[in-house]
Write a structure and sequence with these properties.
By secondary structure, the protein is mostly helical. The chain has one domain. About 70% of the residues lie in helices and about 0% in strands. Helix 6 packs antiparallel against helix 7 and helix 7 packs antiparallel against helix 8.
């Protein structure tokens, strides 16, 4: 019973930490509400677009770290005490990871409206699946350099993620399930971008709205 209580508390804490809206906070420090500027998103991409790299890059790093640090610490705890929780260690890490991403996507401090989870998912991957993460960075860089569409790079990265995990970590079946969840979630959060890409109205990076 105690083990389940601890696990529930960790998942809730991960959701609340993942929900910290660093983009929104940075915007408010500049007197800007990111929900009403640029794409209207509080994530790092819109923070860079509206606030500039000086503010946007720290937002990205903080959004990464709010998932990376808790997962690294939890992973170390599981290595030292594998019987600490009532479930398989991989499942425990997945529950905490998904909670962090959901906290970012459905921010509990802003009426459950948040970002698209790409930076926070990056923190998850760096902590648990670094080779998959490196593959995603490569795919993102190639697609973005060719198209200059951040959204298209994010979508293609989401598709590449479970494929890379299947090849690099064939023994980690539950982590493959995690990447499928993250991939579907990210693509769903980009559905409006997909519609604009199909219509030819999506803005390339650096372009201004007419």
């Amino acid at each position: 019973m105690i083990a389940w209580t601890i696990l529930t508390g960790l998942v809730l804490a991960s959701f609340l930490i993942g929900g910290i809206p660093f983009g929104y906070i940075a915007g408010r420090m500049r007197g800007i509400d990111l929900r009403e500027a640029g794409s209207g998103n509080i994530g790092a991409t819109n923070a860079i677009r509206v606030l500039g790299k000086t503010w946007g890059i720290p937002v990205f790093l903080l959004d990464v770290l709010k998932a990376y640090i808790p997962l690294v610490l939890l992973n170390q705890a599981l290595v030292r005490e594998p019987a600490l929780f009532p479930l398989d260690g991989q499942i425990v890490l997945i529950l905490v990871a998904v909670a962090a991403v959901l906290g970012h996507n459905y921010c509990p401090y802003l009426g459950f409206k948040g970002g698209k989870g790409m930076a926070t998912s990056t923190g998850v991957l760096l902590a648990l699946l670094p080779w998959s993460c490196m593959t995603c960075f490569a795919v993102s860089g190639i697609v973005f350099s060719i198209s200059r569409y951040v959204s298209l790079a994010s979508i293609m990265t989401s598709i590449a993620l479970p494929i890379a995990t299947y090849f690099f970590y064939p023994e980690k079946k539950w982590f493959f399930v995690l990447t499928l969840i993250l991939s579907v979630s990210a693509i769903w959060r980009h559905r409006s971008n997909i519609q604009r890409l199909a219509n030819g109205t999506e803005l390339r990076f650096g372009a201004k709205k007419s």
